[in-house]
Write a structure and sequence with these properties.
The chain is about 10% helix and about 30% strand. The chain is mostly beta strands. Strands 2-5-8-11-16-19-21-22 form an eight-stranded mixed β-sheet, with no helix packed on it. It has a six-stranded parallel β-sheet with strand order 1-4-7-10-15-18, with no helix packed on it. The protein has a six-stranded parallel β-sheet with strand order 3-6-9-12-17-20, with no helix packed on it.
Length: about 200
C-alpha cells in the first residue's frame, strides 16, 4: 500500500517517466518538469519540496539514491546521479547557468537572443554524497565515492574518494574506499531477500 503522501507507481507512470524502477518513493510535493526525460532506478527516495527540471538531455537517477528535502536539479544539459548517491537538504545542481559577466541579459523573462546561457552535463558517480546547502555548477563530474561538505561550491571536477569542503571547495581529506565492498554485501543481501519472496 502506498502512503498518501507519496505518488503511487501508477501516478508516476501516468506522468510519462522514461523509466521507473521498483520501490520509487517520491513525495507529492515534488515537482517534475520534463518527466518524460527522467529515469529512476530501484529504491529511489525523493523527499518533500524538491524540483527536478529536465532539459533535452534529461535527468537519470540510479538505484538506491536519496534526494533530501528542498533540493533542485535544473538545467538544459544532462544531470546524472549514479547508484547509491545522496543529496542532503537544499542541494542545488545546475547544468545551465546565465552569463554573470554583464555581457548578456539574464533570466528566463528575456528572449534567448539576449541571453548567453552556458550548459554542460553534471555527473555524480556511485556513492557520492553531497552535504546540505551545497551548489554544483555546470560541467562538473564528481568521481566515485567522493563526498562534499555542507555549504560547499563545486565548480570543478572532483577526484574519486576526495572529501571536499568550502567555497570554492578544496580537498581536505580522502574517503575510505571500502564502499564497493559494502555495496556488494548489500546487493547480495537484497538478492537473498528477493529469492525468499
Amino acid at each position: 500500500m502506498t502512503s498518501p503522501h507519496l505518488f503511487s507507481r501508477d501516478e508516476l507512470m501516468e506522468m510519462g517517466l522514461r523509466s521507473i524502477g521498483r520501490n520509487v518513493r517520491i513525495d507529492r510535493s515534488v515537482r517534475l518538469f520534463g518527466a518524460e526525460r527522467m529515469s529512476f532506478g530501484d529504491h529511489v527516495r525523493i523527499d518533500p519540496f524538491c524540483i527536478l527540471s529536465a532539459g533535452p538531455d534529461g535527468i537519470r537517477v540510479g538505484r538506491n539514491v536519496h534526494i533530501a528535502a528542498y533540493c533542485s536539479l535544473v538545467g538544459q544539459a544532462k544531470i546524472e546521479l549514479e547508484d547509491f548517491a545522496g543529496l542532503s537538504a537544499r542541494v542545488s545542481i545546475f547544468s545551465s547557468t546565465d552569463d554573470y559577466s554583464g555581457g548578456a541579459l539574464t533570466n528566463p523573462t528575456v528572449p534567448a537572443a539576449f541571453l548567453n546561457v552556458r550548459s554542460a552535463p553534471v555527473f555524480l558517480g556511485r556513492h557520492v554524497i553531497i552535504g546540505a546547502g551545497s551548489v554544483i555548477l555546470p560541467g562538473v563530474t564528481i568521481g566515485l565515492g567522493a563526498s562534499v561538505g555542507a555549504l560547499s561550491l563545486i565548480r570543478k571536477n572532483v577526484d574519486e574518494y576526495a572529501i571536499m569542503a568550502g567555497n570554492p571547495a578544496k580537498q581536505i581529506s580522502t574517503r575510505a574506499d571500502s564502499l564497493l565492498q559494502r555495496e556488494a554485501e548489500y546487493l547480495a543481501w537484497e538478492k537473498a531477500q528477493d529469492d525468499h519472496r
